[in-house]
Design a protein that fits this description.
Number of domains: 2
Radius of gyration: 20 Å
Shape: elongated
Structural class: mainly alpha
Order of helices and strands: HHHHHHHHH
Helix content: over 70%
Mean pLDDT: 88
Length: 199
């Protein structure tokens, strides 16, 4: 049975390098390509050193996800503090690199319970951050929740962004530019008060 003792310091430059390389591999080739042997070869260390810092590949994947998710939450919080417009929220939601990262981990979470729990926790935190921003902006714009619930608006934006990310991953981009332009223009019109809100 594997020990719970951490073996390899969390502030090690080698550990950080392994996380960087694992993330690059995951985004370029998919999570299935990230094995201790392939990761070690690309990072120019032995597979044994990979397991010195990460007892299991699940532990490695959790750390890759957690690190990126924490950075993403911090950047999103800072961005929304500077600009909490609906267009800014849409840009955060439709970030193609972030969507690709999340989709890869969603696929991994289907097979790994530890990953599933991590994705759900951070997903909920990010959703609440976005939801609070949409809710606050709707209130400022005078859009009542019975006309358009903030949760529905957010899920619509997120769903469209995720669909386009999935399609882009296998080369299908027909209609994507038009969809992005339409959503961006619509949100700008709402911001300018050019879209009537039923009383």
């Amino acid at each position: 049975m594997a020990s719970n003792r951490r073996i390899g310091t969390t502030d090690s430059a080698t550990r950080s390098h392994l996380l960087d390389v694992a993330e690059e591999m995951l985004l370029e080739e998919g999570y299935a390509a990230v094995t201790s042997r392939k990761l070690g070869a690309r990072a120019e260390v032995s597979p044994q050193l990979v397991h010195y810092y990460f007892r299991t590949m699940d532990e490695l994947f959790v750390e890759v996800f957690r690190r990126r998710a924490e950075q993403g939450l911090e950047r999103a919080g800072q961005a929304l503090a500077e600009d909490a417009s609906l267009t800014a929220i849409w840009e955060l939601t439709s970030n193609p690199l972030g969507a690709r990262f999340n989709l890869e981990f969603a696929a991994l979470a289907n097979h790994r319970k530890a990953i599933r729990a991590e994705v759900a926790e951070f997903g909920d935190r990010f959703r609440r951050l976005q939801h609070d921003a949409v809710t606050a902006r709707f209130e400022e714009l005078g859009i009542p929740p019975e006309v358009c619930p903030p949760t529905v608006a957010l899920l619509a934006m997120t769903g469209l962004a995720q669909i386009m990310s999935i399609e882009s991953s296998f080369g299908l981009t027909t209609g994507h530019a038009e969809a992005r332009r339409f959503v961006h223009d619509l949100l700008e019109r709402i911001e300018r008060g050019e879209v009537p809100v039923p009383g």
